[in-house]
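Page 42, continued from yesterday. The earlier attempt failed because a stray header line got pasted into the input along with the sequence. Redoing it now with the clean sequence only.
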Amino acid sequence: MAADSRIRVLLVDDHQMVRQGLIFFLSTQPGIEVVGQAASGEEALALVQALSPDVVLMDIVLPGLDGIEALHQIGKTHPSTDVIVLSSFIDDTKLKQAIQAGAAGYLMKDVDPEELAQAIHATRRGEIYLHPKAARRLAEMLRPGPDEQQEPPPAVLTERELQVLELVTRGLSNQEIAAELSITLKTVKAHVSSILQKLGLENRVQATLYALRHQIVELD
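This time it went through. Structure tokens are written below.
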């Protein structure tokens, strides 16, 4: 892979040892280049502005400006930058807030280098990459309780759009959806755009939350 096609990554964590470990891990992975590191949310925003990284690996517990607010601001100012949360624990509230803020992934800090690299590449393909525990917790949080009436999803999506939404929720990229449904990549992109517009959503992460909430698909 040519140097100019490498995925440019910014690391955000208030612990220097964690950042150094990530640099060591990622330096062994082809196609990935660490372009900077930050120890706070404010520093992360400044470096995103200065470096325009492709992917930000960020803890959500940070001094000063926390990771959730940093996520919101990155999404507003640099929507083409993907943010993967890298946390030492799964907190239901933080998990839901991170996904709603537009995080493209949620991983644990004990992830092995190969899986971390896989997640980085996956998010650049437009996929959502969740640690299995995070996916289960998210699905459980969105599942209606026994006393909660489940409303059917609004009847605004076509049958094909529902199929595309299900595959988006399962983490397939546009290219993989095209192959699965035997349609063109251009058609998939048109369907995804139509789904987001009809449901008043901004991105694939919000579409996934919608699909889980309405039980269009359940994550195992």
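Notes: The chain has a mean pLDDT of 85.
Reminder to self: strip header lines before submitting.
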